[in-house]
UniProtKB/TrEMBL annotation:
This is SEL-1 like protein. It holds the Pfam family Ribosomal_L1. Signal peptide: none annotated. It comes from the Eukaryota. It comes from Trichostrongylus colubriformis. Residues 20-79 are annotated as: Disordered. Residues 49-66 have a biased composition (Basic and acidic residues). The lineage of its organism: Eukaryota, Metazoa, Ecdysozoa, Nematoda, Chromadorea.
Length: 487
C-alpha cells in the first residue's frame, strides 16, 4: 500500500515537472521567436541601409564617371590644341625653308583642319555650320567680293532681254541708294538670270569660282543659286553665303570675310575647314585653330567620340600632320537613324465636262488619273463596255468589269501561292497537332475493326480446298489476296 502511494506521488511530481518544463519551453520559444523577429527586422533594416548605401555609391560612381569622362575629354581637347600649335609651327618652318616668301600666301600656303569620322552621319538638321574666325586672313579691302542678287524684272520680256547686265546696273544704283556702297566695296554684281545665261557650262563656272574670293547671295535665291553652281564651287570651298538685303550690307560683307564653312552633309566620312595661311602670325593661327576645333566638336555628328582623327593639312595635302587619333571601335558610336518617310500621294479632285453627273476626276502628282464618285469618293471604272458611246467619241471603251474581276482573282491566287500561310484553307482543315491526334485515332479504329469485320465475314475470305485446287492458287494467296465471289 505504501508502495502504491509512493508511485502516485512520484507520478504527480513528474506531471508537475512536465507542466513546468512545458511552460519554460513556451517562454523560451516566445523569447526565441521574438529574438528571431528582432534579428529579421534588424537584418531587413541592414539590407535596406546597404541598398541605400549601394545606390548612393552607384550614383556617386556614375557622377564620378561622368566627371572623369568630362575631365578626360577636356584634357584631350587641351592636348589636341597644344598639338595643333606644334603642328602649325612645324609647317611654318617647313614652308619657310622650302619655298621662302610667297606672293600669294592665302592661296599657295593656305592651311586647314581635316576631320575624319568613325561613322558618317545618316541624318542632319542643317547642311553647314558657319565659323567666325577671330583673326581672319583677309579683309574687305583686299578681297574680291561678288554679289548675286534676284531678278528685278520677272516678266517674259525681261527673260528675253539681250542686255543681261541691265538689271545688275539697276542693282548697283539701288545698293548705292539704300546702303551707300559703291563698286569700291565689292567687285561684281550678278543677277540669277545673268548667272544662268553667262555661266551655263562647267568650265565657265570653274573660272567664276577662281575669279573672286567671297561670294554673297541674297537669301531669297540662295538655294537655287547653290544648286545651279554645283560641285565646281564646293570643290574650292567657295559656296555662296546667304545675306538679307534688309540688314546692313557692310556688316554682311565684313562677317562673310571672317566666316569659314563646316559642311555637315550626310554620308560624309571627312571634312576640311580652312582657318588661315602660313603667312600669318603663329598666335593668330592658334586662335583660329582653337575656334575651328571648338566648332567641330560641338557641331560634328556624334560628338567628340565619333572623331577618328584630326590633321593639320596645307594646300596639296603634303605634309599632313596628325594632331589627334582615336583607335576606338566604330560600333561604340550611336548616331541618330533617319525616320522612315512615306511620301503622301497628293491629288486634285475636280469636275470634268466629259464625265456624267455624280462623277469627278482625280489627278495625282505622278500623273495618274482615276474616276471617283462625288458622294463617296470611291474609285470606279469608267467608261466600260456597258456604257453608251458613239463613233465620234474617237475611242471605243474596252474596260470589262467582269474580265478585270477574274484577272484580279487569278493574280491574287498566284501571289498567295508564292507566299506561305496566305492561301485560303478549306473549312475542314485542321492545324498540325490536332490533325496528328485525329489521324492516330483513325488508325487505331481501323486496326481494331478490320479483324472484327474479317471474322464476321470469314466465309467470303476463306475458300474451300476444292476451290483452292481448282483455281491453282495457294491458301496463302487466297487469304491475303482473296477473290470476291461474283453472284
Amino acid at each position: 500500500m505504501c508502495f502504491l502511494v509512493e508511485m502516485v506521488v512520484v507520478k504527480k511530481v513528474k506531471a508537475k515537472k512536465a507542466v513546468s518544463q512545458k511552460n519554460v519551453d513556451k517562454v523560451e520559444n516566445k523569447q526565441t521567436s521574438t529574438r528571431k523577429r528582432k534579428l529579421a527586422a534588424e537584418s531587413e533594416d541592414a539590407e535596406i541601409t546597404e541598398n541605400k548605401n549601394e545606390k548612393k555609391i552607384s550614383t556617386e560612381d556614375q557622377k564620378k564617371e561622368l566627371n572623369s569622362s568630362a575631365e578626360s575629354d577636356s584634357t584631350k581637347v587641351q592636348h589636341l590644341k597644344d598639338q595643333g600649335r606644334i603642328a602649325i609651327k612645324a609647317l611654318k618652318k617647313h614652308f619657310a625653308e622650302r619655298n621662302g616668301k610667297s606672293l600669294f600666301p592665302d592661296i599657295d600656303q593656305a592651311v586647314g583642319l581635316t576631320v575624319v569620322y568613325k561613322k558618317p552621319a545618316l541624318t542632319t538638321d542643317r547642311a553647314r555650320c558657319k565659323i567666325m574666325l577671330p583673326c581672319p586672313h583677309r579683309t574687305p579691302s583686299d578681297s574680291s567680293i561678288c554679289l548675286i542678287m534676284p531678278d528685278l524684272d520677272q516678266t517674259a520680256a525681261g527673260r528675253r532681254d539681250p542686255d543681261v547686265d541691265k538689271q545688275a546696273r539697276q542693282w548697283a544704283e539701288k545698293i548705292e541708294k539704300d546702303h551707300g556702297l559703291t563698286n569700291k566695296h565689292y567687285s561684281k554684281i550678278l543677277t540669277k538670270r545673268q548667272l544662268e545665261r553667262e555661266y551655263h557650262t562647267f568650265s565657265q563656272r570653274r573660272a567664276l569660282a577662281t575669279t573672286y574670293d567671297v561670294f554673297l547671295v541674297d537669301v531669297r535665291v540662295g538655294k537655287a543659286v547653290r544648286t545651279f553652281l554645283g560641285k565646281e564651287f564646293y570643290k574650292v570651298h567657295k559656296e555662296p553665303l546667304d545675306f538679307k538685303y534688309s540688314k546692313p550690307l557692310v556688316t554682311s560683307i565684313e562677317n562673310a570675310v571672317k566666316t569659314v564653312v563646316l559642311k555637315l552633309q550626310r554620308y560624309a566620312t571627312r571634312v576640311h575647314v580652312s582657318f588661315g595661311h602660313l603667312g600669318q602670325q603663329l598666335s593668330d593661327l592658334a586662335l583660329n585653330f582653337d575656334a575651328v576645333v571648338d566648332a567641330v566638336l560641338s557641331a560634328c555628328p556624334g560628338g567628340f567620340s565619333n572623331i577618328r582623327s584630326l590633321y593639320v593639312q596645307p594646300v596639296g595635302s603634303t605634309p599632313s600632320l596628325p594632331v589627334y587619333v582615336d583607335n576606338g571601335m566604330a560600333s561604340e558610336v550611336h548616331l541618330e537613324k533617319p525616320p522612315k518617310r512615306r511620301r503622301s500621294m497628293e491629288e486634285f479632285v475636280d469636275d470634268c465636262s466629259t464625265l456624267p453627273d455624280g462623277l469627278k476626276l482625280a489627278v495625282r502628282r505622278n500623273g495618274k488619273l482615276r474616276v471617283v464618285k462625288e458622294d463617296t469618293g470611291h474609285t470606279i471604272l469608267y467608261p466600260t463596255v456597258h456604257d453608251e458611246w458613239e463613233e465620234r467619241d474617237g475611242l471605243k471603251p474596252l474596260i470589262d468589269p467582269a474580265k478585270l474581276k477574274r484577272k484580279h482573282a487569278i493574280k491574287k491566287k498566284r501571289t498567295c501561292s508564292y507566299i506561305p500561310l496566305t492561301m485560303p484553307m478549306p473549312w475542314y482543315y485542321v492545324e498540325k497537332p490536332t490533325r496528328m491526334v485525329l489521324l492516330r485515332c483513325y488508325y487505331a479504329v481501323c486496326a481494331f475493326t478490320y479483324p472484327v469485320f474479317v471474322g464476321l465475314n470469314w466465309k467470303s475470305y476463306a475458300p474451300t480446298r476444292a476451290e483452292v485446287l481448282a483455281g491453282g492458287r495457294s491458301l496463302k494467296d487466297e487469304i491475303l489476296r482473296p477473290k470476291r465471289k461474283t453472284e
